[in-house]
Amino acid sequence: MSRLLRNTSRKLGLPPGSPVFTGRKKISSLQLSILDYSPDHLDETHTGDIEASFPFRDAATTTWITVTGLHETEKIEKITNHYGIHPLICEDILNIHQRPKIEIFDDYLFVTLKTLEYDAQSRHLSIDQVSLILGRNYVLCFQESQEPHFDPLKVRIREQKGRIRSREADYLLYAIIDIIVDQYFLNLEKISDHIEQIEEQLMDDPTQHTLNQIYHIKREVLYLRKSIWPLRETVSKLDKSESSLIRDNTTPYLRDLYDHTIQVIDGVETNRDLLSGMLDLYLSSASNKMNQVMKVLTIIATIFIPLTFVVGIYGMNFEHMPELEWRYAYFAILGIMFAIAAAMLLWFRRKGWL
Fold this sequence. Notes:
By secondary structure, this protein is an alpha+beta fold. It is rod-shaped, with a radius of gyration of 34 Å. The longest helix is centred in the C-terminal third of the chain and has 63 residues, at 251-313. Helix 5 (169-204) packs parallel to helix 7 and helix 7 packs antiparallel against helix 8 (329-351). Strands 2-1-3-7-6-5-4 form a seven-stranded mixed sheet. The chain has two domains: 2-285, Beta Polymerase, domain 2; 289-351, Methane Monooxygenase Hydroxylase, Chain G, domain 1 (Up-down Bundle). Helices cover 52% and strands 15% of the residues. A hairpin with a 2-residue loop joins strand 1 (31-38) and strand 2 (41-47).
C-alpha cells in the first residue's frame, strides 16, 4: 500500500482542485513535445515553453501535445486553464495515484491510465500514470517521465504508416491507449517467464529464496491487477460514450481495444492463480520434507527402544545375573541387538515405511 499512498499527505487540508503533485520528480525540467499533422502536413516541436502549445487549441490540423514532468505545477495549471480544463481534472492529472478512469465533458474527455515496465533483472514493476485529454482536434498527454512507450506510434505518424494521418483526434486517442495495452502484453510475458523460472525451482529444489521470490512476484502481480482491472470499465465507457468527440468510424477500434483489455485482465488473473497454486505447492513440499525427516527420526527412535531395553536390563547392579559371568555374554548381547535392529528394518521395509 505504500506505493499507492506515497506523498498523498501533501494534499491534506487543501481545498478541492488544488494543483499538488503527489509523485517524485523524475526529470530536471518540464518538456513539451508537439506533433501537429494532417494527411499532407507534419510539424514536430520540442521545447520547454508551455505557451508553444497554445495556438493549437483551435487549429484545423490534429495535434498531439505531450507534457513530460508533472512537478512544475504552475505550468501544468497554465496549460489546463488555456484549454478550458476543470481544476478538478488538473488536480487528478497531478495526483499520480489515480485509478484508471474516464470523465466525459461537453467539449473534452479525460482519461487516466497506467503504463507498465517490468525489469527482468531486478524483478521490479514500475508503473507510471498517463493522463489524456481529448479535444475537438487535439490530444493532451501528461506523463511523469520520458519513457519510450509511444515511440512506435510517433514513427507511424512521421512515416505516414497506416491510417492515423488521415484520421481525427479521437483515433489518435485510441492509438495511444492501444499502444499502452500492447505494452501490457509484453510485460505480462516477462512476468510469465519469471513465474516459469520460479516453478522450475519449485519442482527441483525449493528453498527459502524460492518462497521469497513467490511472495515478491505475487505482490507485484497484485499491484498490477489493481492498476489494470479498472481499465475494462474505462474502455467500455469510452466505447459506449455518446460524446460527439468520438466518431462512428472509431467505434469498431474501441470495441477491439476492449477485447484486448479483457485478454490482459485474463492474463493477470491466470498469473495470480498460478502464484497462489505455487505457494500452496511450496507449503506442501515443505510439509512433506518435514514429514520425511520426522519419519526417519521416528524409525531411528523406534529401533533404539528395544536396544535401550536390553542395555537397561544388563545395566542393573544385581549380583546374581548369570550372563554377566559368561565369557561370551558381551558378544552375544551385541549380536542380539544387531539382530533386533536388522529384523525391525526388514519389517519396516515390508510395510513400505522405508
